[in-house]
Structures are given as structure tokens and as C-alpha cells.
Amino acid sequence: MNQRFDALQQFVHANCMGAHFTLEPITGDASFRRYYRLISAEQCGIVMDSDPSRVNNQPFVEYNQVFVEQGLRLPHILSADEAHGFFLLEDLGQTHLADLVNEPQIIKYYQQLIDLIPLIAKTPAVNSMKRYDTDFVNVELTIFKEWLVETFLEMALSHDEYEMWQAVTSLLTDNLLKQPQVTVHRDYHSRNLMFCQQQWVVIDYQDAVTGPVTYDLVSLLRDCYHQLPAEQFEVLFDYGYQALTSVGLLDGASKVEFTRWFDLVGLQRHLKAAGIFTRLAQRDHKPGYLSAILPTMSYITEISARYIELSALHQWLVKHIIPKLQEQL
What we know:
Elements: H1 2-15, E1 21-26, E2 34-40, E3 44-49, H2 58-69, E4 77-81, E5 86-89, H3 106-121, H4 134-152, H5 159-178, E6 181-184, E7 193-196, E8 199-202, E9 209-212, H6 215-221, H7 230-246, H8 255-282, H9 293-304, H10 311-328
Antiparallel strand pairs: 1-2, 2-3, 3-5, 4-5, 6-9, 7-8
């Protein structure tokens, strides 16, 4: 780590042309990347340390170009040493959507962000962009089973529970694949959307995939870190449906069909997220995400209660998983 930080400082030194500088750590990222705020007399910026032995940096660079060409505002890459995984990015300040959720104009802010989703969806897929296919969904859902249930709670699935889990996986996979497939940001939520100079800037975009058309709207409106009040959610859900319909992205899907697509994508996403939060705590020693698990699980139980096909999952979660989680947490 010391050797890597020395190399990072040399990268910064070269970009500051010898001027004195300081690097202030920025905490809170869930990935293997590390971020620092660069402060010097000559310039400011954000320094990203993204070790190429642990992170594939090609999408970060490649997707930046295609999203910007599509008309989206992303952080400018000011300088890069891709071989070592060092990047100097513009400093966009510190205001995220998460900081503005109690503002009087919050509905307008969300509507502005919903209006950007079609731009993301219509971004041409590049060769390195993965697809949400059956294997991809299985890998994501396995995170919940392995990390939350088996590792964190130390519970083994019975034969009947395993059969139930396979049926749920099949149902959620079918729902994902039957929707129109578009480019999705995949983490389009309140901590990855920044407000800078009266513009919305999209960050943490490097995990974009080709996937279901409802995914980014789910990420925004069913945010693991902020629960919208019911009245706000209904207004914004309707706005999202109309926004996607008006640009022809829903292939004529009715509101009822769209609602089911949305709900089941949200269920899949939140099962994955709950598993990731426990993995971050156990594997990556980042316990700060544990507080998001129970709010995430409440959404899962809310949706699973609405659909008869998910009644067995709902009962398992309510009777066995959530009580055990409450004890552990």
C-alpha cells in the first residue's frame, strides 16, 4: 500500500508540475477504488486510485466517452495513467442528490433525473458492455444466498427452501429478460448523482450494462439509501412511465405490465444489494453499509407480499431471515 501511494503521489506531482499539494481522502465508496481530493495552488481535482490488478479500468474510460457523446454530463478525465490505474478527474464539489432530498423542489430534481434516463437507455452499447442474461442474474442473486444467508446469518437452505429459491430466481430472470433491453447505468441512485453548476452529473457509471428498461428508474425511485414518501413515489413513478413511453422505449407496455416489470426488477436488485452490503462488511471490512440492510429488506417483503408467485419467498423472509437479521444487526 505504501509503495502504491508513493506511485500515486508521483502521478499527482507530475500533473501539478512540481507545485505543493495535499491529498484529502474521500470515504464512502463501495468498490476497490480509492478517492482523494487534490488541493494545490495551481489546481484542484479528484484523484482516483483504481488498481488494475483488482479493477478493470477500460469501461471507466470507454463509457465516459460514449455517455458524453450521448449528451450526458460526466466527470471530465483530466489526466490518466491507465497502466497503473491513476486518474485525475475534475472536482464536482460535494453536493449529491442525497443532500437535496428535503429541498422544496425535490420533485423537480427527480423529474430532471428521470428525463436523463432515456439518454442513458439509447446510448449505443460498446463491446465491453456486459448483458443481463441468465448467468448474470444467477451470479447477482447468489450474492444474497451466499453472503447474507449462509455467511452472515450462518443458515443453510433446506431442500424446500432451495427449491423455492430456484423458482424465485427463474421468475426474476424471466422478468428481466422479457423487457426491452437498453443501456442501463445500473447504480443510478442518490449517491451517484451530483448537482454542479445547476447541472446533474452522473458518476460511478463504469458498471453499465445492457439490461431491462425499468432498471435505472428502479435504482432512482427505490433507492437503498433513501425511501421516497409514498405520495412523491406515485407522482414520480407515473412521470417515469410517461417519460419512457413517450420516447418509445416500452414497446407499448401497459401501466399494469410496466408496474410488474418495475416491482420484480426492484426485488432482484434489492436482494442483490442486501447481499452486497453484508459482503462489504465481512469481506471488505466496510461495516457502514450494514445500516442499509433492513430498509432494503423492507422493500423486498413489501413487494413479495403483492404477488402470489412470491408468497413462499415472503413467508421465508418474514419468519426466518428478517428476525435473524434483526438479532445480528
